[in-house]
């Protein structure tokens, strides 16, 4: 079974972002970029499936600018066998990404596609579900456990009230939640080897997909800053302030 | 404008989030219908019919919709959405699971986690873990939106809308429900609680979370946690507050042994009053706390409980 895994290049999760002075967007100049943390988990899961002998090949795919090849190389160093880069400098919304991924799914016919549950830049949490709908496949979102069992896959999902287990027919789409696994670090020899693994470059046009979206970004602002308050010296003072100043007790 | 709201269900009952989503629908304006889809959900439909501003409840009561699995729910929404300009759901794990399928099948974008309505086509939503707020305009014919409940005050229940059955029944041969382990608790739901007490890695272990129980009892509070506490296995995943957990905005949020990483702040910084208890006076949580108490939680918590 082939496993396809989608990775996105985003701002490093440790970086505190800044909004541009003209409020047109977030300022990403000279900001450290990385693989979306949920995509690292998705890659790890795909690689583990290969190590277990469930998957025969792991293919990583990204949609983004030239620089996003860094993240594909990371995926290759982590254990993916080959990569597909769909290159564009446009801002590509989840729907267009899903359309492109659906074309890749059609071409590659994977048994399983693993994505992150959400990209930490747009915080959309949509792409996997959209891909599932467009490909006519079932989905196991927010997965914390994935067990392939013959022509089915059992997925444990993190839902608001606790955990839910569902069974899906294969092929299926999975989106990874934080507790699915603990991603490994790439080792230097693997990083070197990754440079020689195949990486195909395509464009959205090659797939006949129009990436323009009907959603326009009018403005980006900083949220209302919270003013840090005071330090209290004792539990008594805390209770007094909560009762008499904040009036929440 | 005509708006369809997908109701949240909690073990067959109407979930608290729906009253917030209806408030968002009312802010857009127009005819507001609520879809209650599940199995054995008449009581939920009756509760939805009372929500202020709702003119009709549509009930799809069939085994295929039990547990609101994504594939049949998406297909049902596609069948019903033709008559509407907007389809809304809460940004719950159900809303997030189902709505993008509808959007994709209708070839429209989805706006996730909307916190404010500027007009019928323009909305505000947080991005980058809430460190920026985007104003976005959608020119799609159908607007598909998930609503962050903390952005909208719940509507009251003085209404009396008609409840109408939906005859559409879809097939589902792709997915099936196996089991569910839901946390049982007598405490209020995290998302709707007026007071939330959360513990982090500083709690040390799961057993020590009991130190929060007495305080939560006295305050009628829900108990939350940081991701570190959940990952360490102290408490179950449904207690996680943050960018990728629950978003809360109670009157009072008490963070105990939590450092205040941006991903945690994303889930609680809109709380009205924030209290932080941490032994490290440099902990970033103090930058957002209205009241900070520096000290050892193992000394502070028992004292706080006895004095409340
Ligand atoms: C993609 C992604 C998504 C994430 N999503 C979330 C999310 O949704 N929610 C979330 O919470 N995190 C999330 N995180 C994790 C986040 O970055 C932090 O790692 C996490 O919030 C830290 O939890 P903590 O504050 O409990 O632990 P720590 O950072 O280890 O802090 C523990 C604190 O306890 C204090 N302490 C220790 N002992 C005592 C004592 N005896 N008395 C008083 N204080 C004490 C310490 O001083 C310290 O400040 C996410 C991370 C990533 C990468
Ligand atoms: N530009 C992209 N290229 C490849 N995968 C993507 C891209 N955008 C989103 N994804 C995948 O979809 C997941 C969820 O993203 P989103 O729905 O945009 O929050 C990510 O974790 C990726 O796995």
UniProtKB/TrEMBL annotation, chain A:
Please provide the record's keywords in A-Z order: Electron transport, Transport
SMART domains named in the record: ETF
Q: Superkingdom, according to UniProt?
A: Bacteria
Q: What's an example GO BP annotation here? A: carboxylic acid catabolic process
Task: Name any one GO molecular function.
Answer: electron transfer activity
Q: Which cofactor does it need?
A: AMP
Q: Which InterPro entries match?
A: ET-Flavoprotein_bsu_CS, ETF_a/b_N, ETF_b, ETF_beta_N, Rossmann-like_a/b/a_fold
**Domain (Electron transfer flavoprotein alpha/beta-subunit N-terminal) ranges:** 23-211
- Which family does the similarity line name? Belongs to the ETF beta-subunit/FixA family.
Instruction: Describe its assembly.
Output: Heterodimer of an alpha and a beta subunit.
PANTHER family associated with the record: ELECTRON TRANSFER FLAVOPROTEIN BETA-SUBUNIT, ELECTRON TRANSFER FLAVOPROTEIN SUBUNIT BETA
Role noted for this protein: The electron transfer flavoprotein serves as a specific electron acceptor for other dehydrogenases. It transfers the electrons to the main respiratory chain via ETF-ubiquinone oxidoreductase (ETF dehydrogenase).
> What name appears for this protein in its UniProt entry?
Electron transfer flavoprotein subunit beta
From TrEMBL, chain B:
Name the coenzymes or cofactors required.
FAD
A single GO molecular function, which one? electron transfer activity
Cofactor note (record): Binds 1 FAD per dimer.
Q: Name one GO biological process term.
A: fatty acid beta-oxidation using acyl-CoA dehydrogenase
Residue positions binding FAD: 201, 226-227, 240-244, 257-264, 278
Q: Which PROSITE patterns match?
A: ETF_ALPHA
Alphabetical keyword list: Electron transport, FAD, Flavoprotein, Transport
Its domain of life reads Bacteria
Supply the InterPro entries for this chain.
DHS-like_NAD/FAD-binding_dom (IPR029035), ETF_a/b_N (IPR014730), ETF_a/FixB (IPR001308), ETF_alpha_N (IPR033947), ETF_asu_C (IPR014731), ETF_asu_C_CS (IPR018206), Rossmann-like_a/b/a_fold (IPR014729)
SMART domains per UniProt: ETF
> Taking every annotated instance into account, which residue ranges of this chain make up the domain Electron transfer flavoprotein alpha/beta-subunit N-terminal?
3-181
Q: Which family does it belong to?
A: Belongs to the ETF alpha-subunit/FixB family.
What is this protein's function per UniProt?
A: The electron transfer flavoprotein serves as a specific electron acceptor for other dehydrogenases. It transfers the electrons to the main respiratory chain via ETF-ubiquinone oxidoreductase (ETF dehydrogenase).
- What interactions and quaternary structure are annotated? Heterodimer of an alpha and a beta subunit.
- The identity of this protein, by name, is Electron transfer flavoprotein subunit alpha
